[in-house]
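Dear support,

I submitted the protein below through the web form. The confirmation email said the job was done, but the results page showed an empty box. After a refresh the structure appeared. I'm attaching both so you can tell me whether what I see now is the final result or a partial one.
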Amino acid sequence: MQSTTLSTKIVNGIQLICVLAIAVAVIRHEFFAPEPVSSTRTTLLSDEQWQLATSRGHRFGPANARVTIVEFADFECPACRQLAPALAAVRAQYPSDVAILFRHWPLSYHDQAYPAARAAECAGAQGKFEEFHDAMYRQADLLGKKPYSAFAAEAGVPDTILFDRCAGSKDSVEAVNVDTRDALALNGTGTPMLVINHAQITTGTDSLGLLRLVKDALKHSK
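What the results page shows now:
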């Protein structure tokens, strides 16, 4: 009898703890706001700075888009790779209203960044920059292990012999150098560096933060 009474008390105690836990959870949900997500901060660029940001680059999307996202990026940058699907999703959601202007910023401590940028320009010379860009971000972990000619073949670059000659060059690439100088002139601190309709993002952002900024830019665009 004593054993049965003890067991009953234990069960009742466990049930009481569960009830209290549920009550605390309900109270927290009803009366206390959830922890705020850190907001993405931006800095407004001058017209001259915006003109510099958009002075060149590879455009993905319509020329008359209401929102242009300028991205200075490095093909070996992990954060750039993570952001690539979010940028693609925004374009897919607003195909007529959003365009991306891709610009290079290969960071010096990434061994494959400059060769990858050169290879991308070589693909771009044959009209396949965007396809090559997508192929490399999908397989960024293979940079330095997989020949750039293989990326080019997957991207549909028509003349792979010409591509190999171009990508194998050791000469600097003026387009890449200009992009890098412009990123530094805009006080960039690292990749990916994003500018959305004059607003330069000064903190990291995720897919939700990016979408929120794009929606806000669309709301205020003509």
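Response: this is the final, complete result; the empty box was a page-load delay. The chain has a mean pLDDT of 86.
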